[in-house]
Amino acid sequence: MNPVTGVGERPSEHSAFGAHGSVLVINSGSSSVKYQLVNPVGGEAIASGLVERIGEDDGIVSHTFAGNTTRRTGAVSDHGAALRLVLGLFDEVGPDLEEAHVVAVGHRVVHGGAVFSEPALVDEAVEHAIEEISPLAPLHNPANLRGIQVARELLPDVPHVAVFDTAFFSTLPTAASTYALDRVVAAEHGVRRYGFHGTSHQYVSGKVARVLGRRLGDLNQIVLHLGNGASASAVRGGVAVETSMGLTPLEGLVMGTRTGDIDPAVIFHLHRNAGMSVDEIDELLNRRSGLKGLSGENDLREIHRLVAEGDDDARGALDVYVHRLRKYIGAYYAVLGRVDVVTFTAGVGENDDIVRALACEGLQNLGIAIDPARNEGRKKQPTIISPDWAPTLVMVVPTNEELAIARQAVALVEG
Ligand code: ADP
Known about the structure:
With 415 residues, the protein is α/β, with parallel strands linked by helices. It is built from 16 helices and 14 strands.
């Protein structure tokens, strides 16, 4: 079955999906595939879904279209089976992919290494390059590549575009991307700072300029992407000049389950004195640390609940989390010299007014402050939350990585 046809033809002006067709965005993980069919012009998700527990007997598929979610359970043997199930659901419950006129499939790829500074039209050479970069992202790139391979097999008539999480940070100045490590060793093994969440930082910093009606080139911005993973960036005139994640997404801010910045000697200490293997320490730092390691919970909603009950560990975790955030805001102020806008985004940044207020506490002398009434509550739209007197704007801007990937894919395909 090949439900996608008509590549290169214009869809009917009267199509329910608009005159520009749609983009299927795929985010393929090691045991899951997330997808969204996006209208790249209007920006809305036409349909979306998730296949979980790939490779297990109790796989779960959920597909949402027109406000209804269809769920299926059963064994999903591999990524090919997962994508076949998804295409089957498009056939069965809609939307019809032929009518939706899929003009491109956009794939999220975590690590583009030093090779990819732009989205790439996928061919065998691109697949090979993604594979070559895999030692830098052993958990992510192989799974991303598997998704690309099966999607190209099942949807051979549509262009496939790889959009890299690192690409926006390919502009980091050498002084920001270089670790002070023996340069021969670093060069031989690709050890430098690459940065991640780039699609989100680029989308949000661009959106800020559009919302304010300002030229992107005139704005110095700090973007705080606070989800389960979290990263900060400094963006000068639309160009990324600093970011908190490094060789991998482990560096930088305190995250749901990751340490963020840590003295690398902690690893030697645990290896030599606690008898932990490198793999065990990797797992400890990536999955059992951060907010979860400090309080037992990685979700800030739970942490606020525990704090309200008087839980000292939760209070301590929140203190460490916001201390690191303030430290990065101050550091990026020094990097930029002048900051026009600080923007919060992603699950925590968009929804958590307590974190936003604490992160900006005590920064009045830098011109950064929060208006409590403007800050209150969850934000579904771009919102200014700083008081009128503050020279630096503080904003909340919801991110939309799927739409950003869809638009980058269309831009590449349509030239
Ligand atoms: P990711 O894409 O990295 O998995 P998200 O951007 O979806 O993460 O963010 C998930 C996190 O957002 C949750 O772990 C939780 O801490 C936080 N979050 C979501 N909703 C709220 C809320 N209403 N209040 C506070 N935090 C929230």
